[in-house]
Every structure is written in C-alpha cells, then in structure tokens.
Design brief:
heterodimer; B: mainly alpha; Four Helix Bundle (Hemerythrin (Met), subunit A); about 75% helix
C-alpha cells in the first residue's frame, strides 16, 4: 500500500532535482523551468497531504494547489518576457553574464 | 507501493532529471512535458481530477509552449558554454540539492504520521471546488485573479518597451 511518506519523499526528490537545475545551469530559460519543477513538487506534496489528511471534505490542499498553479503560470509569463528583453539587451541569456549590478 | 505509483514516479523523476541536464533546450522542454504529464497522473491517482486537468491545460498547454517560443525567439536551441559533468559548479549544485533533500528526507522519515494509508472515499468534484472557492476562499481567489491580470499586463509591457526604444 502506498503511504503518505512515499508521496512526500518523491516530492522532496523532485524539489531537489529542480533546485539542482536552478543553481547549476547557466541558461536563464532552464533556470525558470527548474523553478517550475519545484512548483510542481510543492503542488504534489499539497495534494498528497489533502488526500491523506483528516479533513478531505474541506478541499484545502486542492484549492491551494490550484492557486499554486495560477501563480506558477504568472511567474512563467513574466519570467519568459524578462528573458526575451534580457536577450535583446545582452545578446545572450546566460545568467553569468548579467552582472551590471555587481560592484 | 503499487505498480501505478512506481511507473508514475519513474516518469516524473526521469523527466525532471532530463529537463535539468539535457544540453538541447527543445529536448529539455519535451522531457519537461513528460514530467508535467507524470505529475498530472499523480493528481489523477490521488483523486484530484480537476487539478490534474488544470495541470495538463496550464503546464503542457501554456507553460511548455511559452518556453518553446522563448527558446525560438532567443535563437538559442543548444545551451552553449554549459558546465560539464563533475565540474566544480555541478558538484556544488549537487551538494546543495543533496543537503536540502537530506533534510526533507530526515524530516519525513522521523514522522510517524507519514506512515498512514489513504482513507477511502475521498473525492474532489468540480462543483465542490467551485463552491469552496466562492465561499471560504473568495478573498484569495480575487487576489490571485488580480495578480494574474497584473502579471499578464506586466509581461506585455516588459516585452514591448524595447520596441519603442528602437524606433
């Protein structure tokens, strides 16, 4: 039988994979998509807590996950628009080259 | 642990690892789509059907297509100058991810409440979700609508600014 721990361990593993991508990759698009992986891991964790929790009729985890998906979509739209503007300005989307604010 | 869980976890973990490691960005986005479908499968498996359909619509239908458009608009099909396997950057990233993963693993393993099995008869119909959103969650719902509108207008303004500068 699948327990709550299985889902939470899987969600934490996916979160770690997303974190690895976000701190390692140089391409800004891949960094944004790694952040999406972390959002998805959090949503999976919330829905699993709802399914196994004591008050599933309250639907809190489901509603939270829908809000999370909405915010992730807004983040992706703004982030990818920023990537396009950064590409026009620097002619590159490597995060290491965006160092104008470095003192 | 049953077969469905094992298959879905293989799909999601392999999709996520490919998405963050592949050099070809289009292949990376395609494996990300695989990952999104795997997570949607988990939502169906957990009886959260509506979240699963929203996941497919928003992530596969919108975010992945948006990412492919961003890749094409920046003429950046292959990631150049990425750090290689076992470079210092990779080892640092792996150390950070392993540390965070180990903390979460430790917290989950030492919690007795995590060992419970799924109660039967848990469902989430669209009508119930809609009723909850329009009663208990109406203020967060309105705030999120405002945020989404602001983000859409903001994305258009950010992307358009440079065009007016060029003329």
């Amino acid at each position: 039988m699948t327990t709550l721990a299985h889902f939470q361990l899987l969600a934490s593993m996916l979160f770690a994979v997303g974190l690895f991508g976000a701190v390692t990759r140089r391409n800004a698009i891949v960094v944004l998509l790694s952040i999406e992986i972390m959002f998805n891991a959090a949503n999976l964790s919330l829905v699993a807590f709802w399914r196994y929790g004591p008050h599933p009729e309250q639907l809190s985890g489901v509603v939270f996950a829908i809000f999370g998906i909405t915010i992730a979509a807004a983040e992706a739209a703004v982030g990818l628009a920023l990537v396009i503007v950064i590409y026009r300005y620097y002619k590159s989307i490597e995060v290491d080259k965006m160092r104008s604010l470095k003192g | 642990m049953d077969v469905t869980f094992i298959i879905l976890s293989l799909i999601t973990v392999v999709g996520a690892i490919w998405a963050v490691t592949l050099r070809n960005l289009i292949h990376g986005v395609l494996s990300l789509v695989l990952f999104f479908f795997g997570v949607a499968g988990f939502f169906f498996y957990l009886n959260a059907d509506f979240v699963g359909w929203v996941q497919i619509l928003v992530y596969v239908g919108a975010v992945a297509i948006l990412a492919i458009f961003a890749i094409m608009l920046t003429h950046n099909l292959t990631a150049k100058d990425e750090p290689g396997f076992f470079s210092l950057r990779w080892l640092t990233g792996m150390a950070i991810a392993a540390a965070v993963g180990a903390v979460l693993w430790f917290a989950i393993k030492n919690n007795a409440a995590m060992l419970q099995t799924a109660p039967a008869g848990v469902t989430s119909s669209v009508a119930d979700i809609g009723r909850k959103m329009m009663t208990d969650w109406v203020v967060p719902f309105e705030v999120v609508s405002l945020l989404l509108t602001a983000a859409m207008i903001g994305a258009i303004v950010i992307a358009m600014e440079q065009i007016s500068h060029r003329k």
